[in-house]
């Protein structure tokens, strides 16, 4: 930069053409880096097809007592089970201290539109927590396992009718996805109720 003497006798610096070229080059360089970096950063966002599966609504009005519905959420099966009064009583009667992954039946439920728990409906991700197989459910057959719940045929994990691990190599209970009751007959899976 060159130094000029102002009218009042003070020294002032004026940019030269060389300074302007350096500043302009740096600006274009930063803009170029931003143009190339944006796609690399943007690729970390979820794709549109994944975002479309972020939440799903499930109509449970046609479920009958003792039936299970399987929905697909984010590429995973989700079990929605309409439990019988006997199944609910059995789940409540379990000694929680005897469980590997200690959760009461009520801790695995969410409140309905009226604010009360709906123990007749159990919603779980249908993937075994051991190695990711899909457990089978048949409480009236040995395919349901020893605890009248789900049985993973891959490595022999037994879950009770609340989705809690009772026997086998699985380390955790079946996962409860985020969900809430839009109405008495419709669940929204993938989102929790807003306060």
TrEMBL record:
Main location (coarse class): membrane
Subcellular location: Cell membrane
Enzyme Commission number, as recorded: 7.1.1.8
Coiled coil regions, renumbered to chain: none
Record-linked InterPro entries: Rieske_2Fe-2S, Rieske_2Fe-2S_sf, Rieske_Fe-S_prot, Rieske_Fe-S_prot_C, Ubiq_cytC_Rdtase_Fe-S_su_TAT, Ubiquinol_cyt_c_Rdtase_Fe-S-su
Membrane topology: Single-pass membrane protein
CDD domains the UniProt entry points to: Rieske_cytochrome_bc1 (cd03470)
Catalytic activities: a quinol + 2 Fe(III)-[cytochrome c](out) = a quinone + 2 Fe(II)-[cytochrome c](out) + 2 H(+)(out)
Membrane-crossing residue ranges in chain numbering: 20-41
Cofactor: [2Fe-2S] cluster
GO MF, one example: oxidoreductase activity
Domain Rieske: 91-188
Keywords of this entry: 2Fe-2S, Cell membrane, Disulfide bond, Electron transport, Iron, Iron-sulfur, Membrane, Metal-binding, Oxidoreductase, Translocase, Transmembrane, Transmembrane helix, Transport
Gene3D superfamilies: Rieske [2Fe-2S] iron-sulphur domain, Single helix bin
Pfam families linked to this entry: Rieske, UCR_Fe-S_N
PROSITE patterns: RIESKE (PS51296)
GO cellular component, one term: plasma membrane
Summary of subunit composition and partner proteins: The main subunits of complex b-c1 are: cytochrome b, cytochrome c1 and the Rieske protein.
Main function: Component of the ubiquinol-cytochrome c reductase complex (complex III or cytochrome b-c1 complex), which is a respiratory chain that generates an electrochemical potential coupled to ATP synthesis.
Protein family membership: Belongs to the Rieske iron-sulfur protein family.
Entry protein name: Ubiquinol-cytochrome c reductase iron-sulfur subunit
Organism encoding this protein: hydrothermal vent metagenome
């Amino acid at each position: 930069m060159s130094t000029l003497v102002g009218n009042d006798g003070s020294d002032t610096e004026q940019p030269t053409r060389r300074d302007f070229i350096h500043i302009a080059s740096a600006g274009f360089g930063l803009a170029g880096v931003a143009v190339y970096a944006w796609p690399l950063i943007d690729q970390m966002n979820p794709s549109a097809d994944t975002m479309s599966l972020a939440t799903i609504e499930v109509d449970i009005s046609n479920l009958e007592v003792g039936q299970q519905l399987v929905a697909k959420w984010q590429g995973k099966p989700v079990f929605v089970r309409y439990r019988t009064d006997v199944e609910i009583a059995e789940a409540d009667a379990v000694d929680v201290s005897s469980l590997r992954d200690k959760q009461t039946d009520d801790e695995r439920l969410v409140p309905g539109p009226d604010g009360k728990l709906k123990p007749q409906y159990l919603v779980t991700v249908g993937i075994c927590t051991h190695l990711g197989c899909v457990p089978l459910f048949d409480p009236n057959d040995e395919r349901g396992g020893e605890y009248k719940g789900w049985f993973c045929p891959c490595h022999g994990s037994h879950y009770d009718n609340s989705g809690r691990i009772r026997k086998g190599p699985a380390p955790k209970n079946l996962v409860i996805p985020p969900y809430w009751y839009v109405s008495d007959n419709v669940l929204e899976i993938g989102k929790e109720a807003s306060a």
